[in-house]
Design a protein that fits this description.
By secondary structure, the protein is an all-alpha fold. It is built from 7 helices and no strands. It comes from Fodinibacter luteus. Pfam families: RsbRD_N.
Length: 157
């Protein structure tokens, strides 16, 4: 069986399980946006992943991930919140693939799934960090880790 067909057969349960996983995470912005918003975004990502696997083409994944990073960044989402949505879907898709794909097809199936979602998360993260570097974002404030390279005397008090 081809992977895209397998995922489409399980679409409703994959999306339901993904939503439940994201809901358990209590992600502030997704909770505030509501169930309909969250479910639709998971479905959009699911559809994109399946078509990228079917077509063996990552171009739309790149465009989508860049757009999502820009939208969510401008809406005040933390990068961890957005990554959590990708991760919830990825984890659920993996479980369905491992449970339903014949053992001899698992390596290729998980490789395809990992490639598409890994690429999407990479574009998302690089875009988000690029946007964040233009202005202060508390979740990306690493100044305390890089206060300098010269040893300083510490006041014993």
């Amino acid at each position: 069986m081809d992977l895209a067909a397998l995922l489409l057969e399980s679409q409703s349960s994959i999306l339901e399980d993904s939503f439940a996983a994201l809901e358990r995470s209590h992600i502030h912005h997704y909770e505030a946006a509501g169930e309909e918003f969250t479910r639709q975004r998971l479905e959009d990502l699911f559809t994109l992943v399946v078509s990228a696997i079917r077509d063996r083409d990552l171009a739309r994944v790149s465009v989508f991930s860049r757009r999502i990073a820009e939208e969510r960044f401008n809406q005040g989402f933390d990068i961890g919140e957005v990554q959590a949505a990708f991760n919830a879907l990825e984890e659920t898709m993996w479980r369905h693939v491992v449970a339903n794909e014949p053992p001899e097809d698992l390596a290729e199936a998980t490789g395809l799934l990992s490639t598409v979602l890994g690429f999407g998360k990479d574009v998302l993260a690089r875009t988000y960090v690029s946007l964040a570097s233009r202005r202060h974002v508390p979740s990306l404030d690493l100044t305390a880790l890089f206060a300098g390279t010269q040893p300083r005397e510490v006041d014993p008090q």
